[in-house]
Specification:
- Its EC number is 1.1.1.94.
- Helix 4 runs parallel beside helix 5, helix 9 packs antiparallel against helix 10 and helix 13 packs across helix 14.
- The protein is of the alpha/beta class.
- The protein folds into two domains: 175 residues, Rossmann fold (3-Layer(aba) Sandwich), CATH 3.40.50; 142 residues, Orthogonal Bundle (N-(1-d-carboxylethyl)-l-norvaline Dehydrogenase, domain 2), CATH 1.10.1040.10.
- The chain starts with a helix and ends in a 7-residue tail after the last helix.
- The protein binds NADPH dihydro-nicotinamide-adenine-dinucleotide phosphate and 1,3-dihydroxyacetonephosphate (13P).
- The site of 1,3-dihydroxyacetonephosphate has 13 residues, from helix 8, helix 10 and helix 11.
Length: 327
Amino acid sequence: ALASARSDTLIWARDPDQALSIGQRHVNPRHLPDIALPPALRATADFGAALAHVLEGPDQADRLIVLGVPMSGLADVCRRLAQALPARVPGSAPVHLLWTCKGISPDTHQWPHQIVAETLPGTAWLRTGVLSGPSFAREVAQGLPVALAVASRDPDTGRAAQAAFHGTQARIYGTRDVMGVEVGGALKNVMAIACGISDGLRLGTNARAALITRGLAEIQRLGVALGGQADTFIGLTGLGDLVLTATGELSRNRQVGVAIGQGRSLDDILAGGMTAEGVRCARAAQALGREHGLDLPITDAVCDVLFGGVAPTQAVAALLARDPRDE
Ligand SMILES: NC(=O)C1=CN([C@@H]2O[C@H](COP(=O)(O)OP(=O)(O)OC[C@H]3O[C@@H](n4cnc5c(N)ncnc54)[C@H](OP(=O)(O)O)[C@@H]3O)[C@@H](O)[C@H]2O)C=CC1
Ligand SMILES: O=C(CO)COP(=O)(O)O
């Protein structure tokens, strides 16, 4: 999306062959082999050269770094950045750093912004924020329209993202609610697994609508308890991304759920190395809910099925057998 809006976009890939293919043939052979990437997109496997491109490029107004790695790679890439960033940056304009990952660290239960703050501390000129919302990578790479949100404590970061992304494809909304946006992004993946399981069991569209709606209530309950704003959860990064992921066939989290509902094992489904952040963060979400004394029944059911040896049909029966309550 960036490369379609501006000609000076450079992608860094850790795999030199991948960088070569993206830069010269405009194809990402591993992740999107059948899609032609914008011809203006350049690529490198040299981390220092990629950073120099941002810091020393001619456009001092909106210098932007987007980290498109999963949760498992965020701390690693931030540490590399911390080591490579100079004490002072050339020029006076700040550098804006965005991340796209949606999840919670399975070990430390940290949110992405906490990992970034811990690994990149005290860099006054580096402004940070999360880029999130309904956005299957395949559709974005095909040049189809997309609306996203950037959450940052610094409104300039939202404005920098708007300046960089706005063109013919993408529209970016700004918000200050970093926690709300990150909770929405992480928990919608858990709910997409639940909806996938329901669809894999052929429980019908009524059941799916119920899971989406009650799932949203659950996401909002946790998000507000952690300091997020209630209305963030009915925006792009809450309801928008939940609807996309719970119903869209491109969702990997949904695909995991469907396969489980059809009787496959989790190990078998993930054997090919598929990124399904909901699997990685469901237990952390459950633990955070318990810490805050919250009822998260769909998250509990997903954990029971993924890790507790509970059959999907049993988990559904347990959800339906819960005590009556007001909506
Ligand atoms: N895919 C999607 O549709 C969307 C994904 N997201 C979120 O964005 C994040 C990334 O997702 P996605 O792109 O699908 O993930 P992938 O697993 O496809 O990884 C994306 C890229 O990150 C690289 N990477 C992974 N770990 C490291 C590391 N330690 N150091 C350097 N590079 C690394 C991978 O390199 P390599 O190819 O060498 O493995 C790959 O090029 C996830 O948290 C996801 O939830 C958000 C919106 C949409
Ligand atoms: O976050 C996404 C779309 O916004 C991608 O969802 P999956 O990770 O389930 O494929």
